[in-house]
TrEMBL record:
Keyword DNA-binding in annotation: yes
Organismal lineage: Bacteria, Pseudomonadati, Pseudomonadota, Betaproteobacteria, Burkholderiales
GO molecular function, one term: DNA binding
One record GO biological process: DNA integration
UniProt-listed Pfam families: Phage_integrase
Limits of the Core-binding (CB) domain: 45-153
Family stated for the protein in its record: Belongs to the 'phage' integrase family.
Protein's name in the database: Tyrosine recombinase XerC
Keywords from the UniProt entry: DNA integration, DNA recombination, DNA-binding
Organism name: Paraburkholderia humisilvae
Gene transcribed to yield this protein: xerC_13
Length: 399
């Protein structure tokens, strides 16, 4: 976060934190929860500097920085603009108030975007929220903030973590993933993509991109961040011990870890189809830096993670409208589908692979839920078994 530049406006809309100059009495320089006499491990003298130091730990993981900054920024803006006290003076009771605020950010004109397309941070239409957060999103936000407060305590900036008093449920069996698409919904999404308009050149390329994007999300189980950062040249062919050619995608995922994801024959055929739509040869060459997901116009620059999410959300909105057209009994399901995201497709891929009895160890490695052992370079036979199982049992089935 760069140094703020504009005096905070208590009666105006919330602005990105880098555009604000926080008054001294709200900066946290003299917060009531500041550590006194403790060993200081960071040089931060105010709340904004302390948050910046916390975020700097994740500088090599841009997706994590974006998510963590969003939650820290929301809290800092709320506490300064609306709650009227420094972040480093927050009590447990204050954070209970904030938790309720997340479920209904009011006044909406100050906190909630009024435009459909997400504006840039420099836009006067920018707001910290797109709308109320779901219970799951609220829990996720509070978990991130709890980690931030715990680190600020460990760093000697805060005396205590005001979220450490939060009631903890007993450890129970891990709940099943619920944010995934049923086979019914997945069929509606596929039909929606297959019937996208293609009357103009732009519409044709957009339809091709949507089909390819959902192919990679589903068949490869990639994260939106991974799709945005992976080049075409990461798709390569390797012969196994029997001379059989198998295609793979080399992905750099969470924690900067690299994994190999099976690229099934179906996925490779869809890649060839997508490349031909752009007038490219059907197969990528090793080291090709052209992005895995191409922009419709202009230079072949990689799309941002946010742009990938917008494309996915647009498709889900159209699919939800298709469900609503079936009748009032589908309205609730349509609303759920409209709230889906790219990560839902990843969960769907994992769920459908499990449904088809793909070995769970292979599902784990395909989705990157565990790092590869340092000896995996010698385990090509095991990799090939994972590829064969994925290809035989995990299919998308475009018409």
């Amino acid at each position: 976060m760069p140094q703020p530049a504009v005096l905070i406006a208590p009666d105006g809309p919330a602005r990105p934190i880098e555009q604000l100059r926080i008054p001294t009495d709200l900066s946290g320089a003299a917060g009531t929860n500041r550590a006194r006499g403790a060993i200081r491990l960071v040089s931060a003298g105010d709340d904004l500097s302390a948050i910046t130091a916390w975020l700097a730990r994740y500088a090599d993981v841009p997706g994590t920085v974006a998510v963590y900054r969003k939650e820290a920024e929301r809290l800092l803006l709320w506490v300064v603009i609306q709650h009227g006290k420094p972040l480093s003076s927050l009590t447990h009771e204050d954070l209970l108030v904030y938790q309720r605020f997340l479920a209904d950010p009011q006044p909406a004109w100050r906190w909630v975007m009024s435009v459909r397309k997400k504006p840039g941070r420099a836009s006067p239409d920018w707001r910290p929220f797109a709308g109320p957060l779901s219970p799951t999103s609220i829990r996720h936000a509070m978990t991130i903030l709890n980690a931030m407060f715990a680190w600020l305590v460990d760093a000697g900036y805060l005396a205590g973590n005001p979220l450490s008093l939060t009631r903890r449920r007993g450890v129970a069996t891990k709940p099943a993933i619920t944010r995934y698409l049923t086979h019914e919904w997945w069929g509606v999404v596929k039909t929606t993509i297959e019937t996208l308009p293609a009357g103009t050149e732009r519409e044709r390329l957009h339809a091709a991109r949507c089909r390819w994007l959902f192919t990679v999300l589903y068949l490869a189980g990639l994260r939106a961040t991974e799709i945005a950062s992976t080049p075409m040249g990461a798709v390569f062919c390797r012969r196994d011990a029997a001379g059989v050619e198998r295609w793979w995608i080399e992905v750099r995922g969470k924690g900067n870890r690299t994994r190999l994801v099976p690229a099934t024959d179906e996925l490779i055929a869809e890649l060839a189809r997508y490349r031909r739509a752009h007038g490219l040869p059907p197969s990528p060459y090793r080291g090709e830096m052209r992005p895995l997901l191409l922009p419709l116009i202009g230079q072949e620059k990689p799309l941002s993670r946010g742009a990938v999410h917008l494309i996915v959300k647009e498709v889900f909105a159209l699919a939800a409208a298709r469900l609503r057209a079936r009748g009032p009994e589908w309205l609730a399901q349509a609303d759920q589908l409209a709230g889906a995201s790219a990560h839902w497709v990843r969960h769907t891929a994992g769920s459908h692979m499990s449904d088809q009895k793909v070995d769970l160890r292979f599902v784990r490695d395909n989705l990157g839920h565990a790092s590869l052992a340092t000896t995996s370079v010698y385990l090509h036979a095991e990799d090939d078994a994972r590829h064969a199982a994925t290809q035989a049992l995990h299919r998308l089935g475009w018409v």
